[in-house]
């Protein structure tokens, strides 16, 4: 049985950063991912990373923008930590070799981003996430003697001892189908978000909420699950993301009547209002008949000088050409709001610790909560790195003070049996893909930018039915080597657990705040709902609801206008 | 909706059977990708088809395959385009080359690609301790290496590298492009050591044969071969590394040969690569090559007359090209992140943010000016 001080599940930015931090403290580290680390979805974060690094900017300003962006649901202690530590983190990345954009003096240069009162987004063209991810992977290769990499291993369950402590995980080697128990003094979930619960989505096919569901199943509470970010600029049909960097560089939004409609909704910040505001504005235009026939509005990037676009927005030039047949330097591109990010996740403290001893969570899988009701653009890369590092450090320190826990081999036998049960499944249940498709389409209809009690109740009912169907879904692949069919069966059940929590949270929150807009409760209600909704596993029944107060330090809720 | 037929290369290591082709019908718009087609087949017909894929937007680099014999990302090729280029209208999809197949369309990238990446010491080696703030570097240097940072490690270039087919130990296009990411980065303190290492390795930068396959294969415009050529120029011209493989001298001899003759005069090329016919180093090399020369004569590939009397002389046009290149003060470097023309001057349209970013390169930096 492989045993390490710290086991990290997921090898995107949060996981890799946690691994490097834990190794630096002196822990033995394993990092495990169902895909090769550089395939992780952190790649897709295009626009940049926020930090108040300029002498005339301040972390307080960054923190206030984040609090306001969160619609006052973010925990201000955690936000303060993130914004204070951001400049140091960006410099750390620069020193490791990230090829950040420079200004004419050769210093780090910035671009503007949504919801921010200063240009504080540091970037590498529009491949910032990719550049960061690949540079961190360079560091993982550099420190290969200290960090064991398990690439293309799929975690099937977290393991607990009799005291409820998390003692590692069981995983399947995708290449040969063998199962292994990984013992660890501390386990960090860093396996990303759950965008595949929606269709379409900007999220990659791997974003199936594995870590959220695995943690939930062993008793870790989830928080803010109803808060799903719809990104204002995604391609109709396939949901592919057009970076907010486009608007940061000066692109405008127009409806089908040629009106720059953000003037009505956010007269000061216009296209650079926070994402929930812009998405709602677009959806309102579309719903009221001022969109294009394909249910979109237009993003006009021709406002940006062509050379600048070719240099700083190169990736979306390619995306426009390859996935929409549009030359964005010459003509507007049709876009609409699309599922992009889950603000909620596994509830953690400011060190990434969950309420299960020995289990940590960082990145999109987690909810610290720094994003509250709505995440600001370019704060997600920051979140992954700051809380990835903090959880790595904290987990390593925990490990240093304890002896190896006794990991139960029974869990391994259980998981082997469970997998064998799926592979040996007989009969003609529905296809996994059909269930997934129904889930995603339904969620995108009933749990999107505008929500109602009735739609959400129907959504919940559908999810309960799909859960039944998923448990007997048909299996084609009976093999051991790269059996992606059996992994899809597991992912489907993770997605359904996560989707149920999203819907239950959305039903419970009877107000409109951040990304949650209830047509039946259109106002923000601070008296009753300035609190987090926390969900815990409750056997096979719908999750148990409780509340957690929002931590306030220096910013009282105000009316939110942009 | 249009109908397409996909012919997929199937292989299961557990079945004990040889690889085979299997055809599937796809019912999708022609502007959807080949990956969408494969996923539809997986969804509707056979979920046991194995392909790595994730982002669907040519960012994650998972779905490298060969489509109609050419490497690409499955998500980066439209069905209609693929069908137009298919021999019999049937789109063939098979695993990438130069790497062992694990199952169906999945190859073992660890065994080849990632081993080669690790060969080039793929991390920054700065001189001295970290500065208190950021490194101050020329803005264009970061844009320059961003071309190789754009590499998503999909393996398409490795798949069709002809040199690697002949010499499996060749470090290869992806890893050498990665090497340029450090050699071109002013923050790295080991430029000479890296270049010396890659020049002296018989499977290093001089093992590339300029076939352009990697440039054509790369879905991200990294142009690995161009990066290899830049490594050569920096190694040979800037650091004057005369490698034991004779790669640098051979390259110089080649260029001089063309400058003089316009067309390649092969009989001169070999001795010139070793310093000329009468250079002591050339003698053993020429003797070594005698059997090849004799075989070529025997089979009529060359005649003594053609080989020895090369009457062609470089025309004025060729001479002008050489003069133009020699007269340039700076080396002419192509980089896709520094191309594109400046718009008509529109000061009003110039966004404040972009100005604050200070990112506009001086016009003379753009090769298109």
Fold and architecture overview:
The complex is a heterodimer of chains A (562) and B (369). Helix content of chain A is 36%, strand content 17%. Chain A has 16 helices and 19 strands. The longest helix of chain A has 25 residues, at 484-508. The model of chain A has no long low-confidence stretch (mean pLDDT 96). With 369 residues, chain B is of the alpha+beta class. Chain B is built from 16 helices and seven strands. In chain B, strands 2-1-5-3-4 form a five-stranded mixed sheet. A two-stranded antiparallel sheet of chain B has the order 6-7. In chain B, a hairpin with a 2-residue loop joins strand 3 and strand 4. Chains A and B meet through helix 3, strand 4, helix 4, helix 9 and helix 10 of A and helix 1, helix 3, helix 4 and helix 16 of B.
Shape of chain B: globular
- In one word, what is the shape of chain A? globular
Detail the poorly predicted runs of chain A: none
CATH homologous superfamily identity of the domain at 110-238 in chain B: Alpha-helical ferredoxin
Question: Which segments of chain B are poorly predicted (pLDDT under 50) over 5 or more consecutive residues?
Answer: 339-369
Number of domains of chain A: 2
Estimated radius of gyration of chain B: 25 Å
CATH class membership of the largest domain in chain A:
Alpha Beta
Mean pLDDT of chain B: 87
Write the element-wise H/E pattern of chain B from the N-terminal end onward.
EEHEEHEEEHHHHHHHHHHHHHH
What is the CATH third-level topology name of the largest domain in chain A? Answer: FAD/NAD(P)-binding domain
- By CATH, the topology of the domain at 110-238 in chain B is Fumarate Reductase Iron-sulfur Protein, Chain B, domain 2
- How many strands, which pairing sense, and closed or not: the largest β-sheet of chain B? 5 strands, mixed
Q: What is the average of the pLDDT values of chain A?
A: 96
How are the strands of the largest sheet of chain B arranged? 2-1-5-3-4
